[in-house]
Design goal:
Length: about 500
């Protein structure tokens, strides 16, 4: 799973978590709300019933006090009709007092306000608090009238209970009304939250896809350019970008195309030069033998006695023979360049080539010094882990040979009195194998870095300019690169770079 996938998954996961988490949280609240409303509906009904019952109770009490007052009135009227003495009235009132427990006292007064009779219950200080009211009646018999005041007491607690029940019912009904609006608020909050979550998810998606699409458009644009033949395009690869991998692959592809195009171009050019070398070798080689034979004949067939002339002839013959020999050597080099075989690639260890060089170094030093070895130190570092590549060991050794020979020549020229040093080694990186040849000579100035690989480019009197051309051709046929830059010790550094076997 790459970084991009992880990011997308994270975004989706975050959105889902926010949405579900919010939903669960709100559902929990709503559930609790619904639950409490369901319970309270019944509970509320009970409360209302309770209030009713208490009110009825109080009403019943009230009407029974009225009845008691009526009963007192009737009893007094009946007594007045019989025209009996007042002592009887006192007994009667006492009896009534006993019959109705909530009657506390009865007072009978005449029309003039004089008290005719009055009875009352003794007040019990330990009794519960009472609410005392008076029921007034008028008893009449014939012309006589009496005012009756009946004092009734109802326990205070009945009123209190009614009050409390009423309040509870009131509070509940207010709560119930509000609960409807509370659940409305939940729905609103939920809606807004869902909206926000969707918005955030969209934003994240948009930002991510915007960046990606921008890069994809750039890639498409670059691909179109490459399709049109422009191999110089290179896309910027920032380390934080999601499609860096794709962009890098694209850049690699373009670089490969560029490399293979320049490889093809170089090999085509080399092919033309090889044709030229073949013709040149042919044209030069043929007259060499007659020239040499003619010089020999002139020298050997002189029969005159002029000693000075004879010496001149011998001299001329020697010069001609020497130059012919040089020409023969050149012709040999030209034709071997012309007949350069194609590399025959097979898996092998790059270290082998460096090893083989080690053994041919003494001969090379002698060769450069025309018989006497030059004082150049050649360090061959063959200690390396296996570097598996596809190669033609013979051809590659010929190439490295040319590089080492050039380096020996260069440092020998730069430091004729010794101190010249050449280093040859093989190494590898993650997916490339290298052979490096470097020296501490004068090096090559940068403006010649391209041209030195051209055939016939040489700065040496005896040079042919074919050495580096051969190396480059061989390396290109191996699918590799021949690179030139400055060595850390000051001279030239040539590097043969080949793809590793396992990286193919
Ligand atoms: N190690 C080196 N240091 C400095 N110059 C070099 C080195 N190798 C090659 N050159 C330059 O590159 C030229 C071309 O080399 P090459 O193709 O081998 O042809 P030649 O050796 O026949 O001159 C040389 O003449 C020389 O000027
Ligand atoms: Mg050379």
């Amino acid at each position: 799973m790459n970084r991009f996938e992880r990011k997308i998954l994270f975004a989706i996961g975050l959105s889902v978590f926010l949405a579900l988490g919010g939903a669960v949280f709100l559902a929990q609240g709503a559930l609790r709300e619904v639950y409490s409303v369901g319970i309270n509906e019944r509970f509320g009904a009970e409360l209302v019933h309770g209030v009713e019952a208490r009110r009825n109770q109080l009403m019943a009490l009230r009407s029974s006090t009225e009845q008691a007052a009526d009963a007192v009135q009737w009893a007094v009227e009946a007594e007045m009709a019989r025209k009996r003495g007042p002592t009887r009235l006192s007994d009667l009132l006492q009896q009534l007092l006993e019959r109705y427990p909530f009657v506390r006292g009865i007072r009978v007064t005449g029309v003039d306000g004089r008290i005719v009779e009055s009875v009352s219950r003794p007040v019990d200080p330990t009794a519960e608090p009472m609410r005392v009211t008076t029921r007034d009646r008028i008893a009449s018999a014939g012309e006589r009238r009496l005012n009756i005041a009946v004092e009734v007491a109802v326990p205070e607690v009945y009123f209190q209970r009614l009050q409390e029940a009423g309040e509870a019912a009131d509070v509940y009904s207010r709560l119930q009304r509000r609960s409807a609006s509370v659940s409305d608020v939940y729905v609103w909050v939920f809606g807004v939250l869902v909206f926000v979550v969707i918005l955030v998810a969209f934003l994240i998606g948009a930002i991510l896809s915007r960046r990606v699409t921008k890069r994809v458009v750039a890639l498409a644009e670059a691909s179109r350019k490459v399709g049109a033949g422009d191999l110089t395009v290179e896309l910027p690869t920032s380390a934080t970008d999601e499609i860096t991998e794709l962009t890098e692959a694209f850049n690699d592809m373009v670089r490969d195309l560029r490399d293979s195009r320049s490889r093809i171009e170089y090999l085509q050019r080399i092919g033309a030069w090889q044709d030229f070398a073949r013709r040149l070798a042919h044209e030069i080689k043929n007259p060499l033998t007659p020239i040499q034979l003619a010089a020999q004949e002139l020298d050997e067939t002189y029969v005159g006695g002029d000693e000075a002339y004879r010496r001149k002839l011998q001299n001329a013959r020697a010069i001609i023979e020497e130059e012919v020999a040089t020409l023969r050597r050149l012709v040999g080099e030209f034709s071997s360049f012309a007949k350069l075989p194609e590399a025959d690639l097979a898996p092998a260890d790059l270290g082998e080539v460096v090893h083989a060089i080690e053994t041919s170094v003494p001969a090379m030093l002698e060769d450069v010094g025309h018989g006497t070895p030059v004082g150049v130190e050649v360090v061959v570092d063959a200690t390396t882990e296996p570097i598996e590549v596809r190669m033609d060991p013979m051809m590659l050794k010929r190439g490295v040979d040319n590089l080492v020979r050039n380096a020996i020549q260069a440092v020998n020229e730069a430091k004729p009195d010794g101190g010249g040093r050449v280093l040859v080694r093989a190494y590898k990186t993650r997916n490339r194998g290298f052979i490096e040849v470097r020296d501490n000579g004068l090096g090559i100035s940068e403006e010649h870095w391209e041209r030195v690989f051209d055939p016939y480019y040489t700065t040496r009197a005896e040079g042919t300019g074919l050495g580096l051309a051969i190396v480059k051709k061989v390396v290109l046929e191996h699918g590799g690169e021949l690179r030139l830059d400055r060595a850390p010790e000051g001279g030239a550094r040539f590097r043969i770079e080949l793809p590793l076997l396992e990286s193919r």
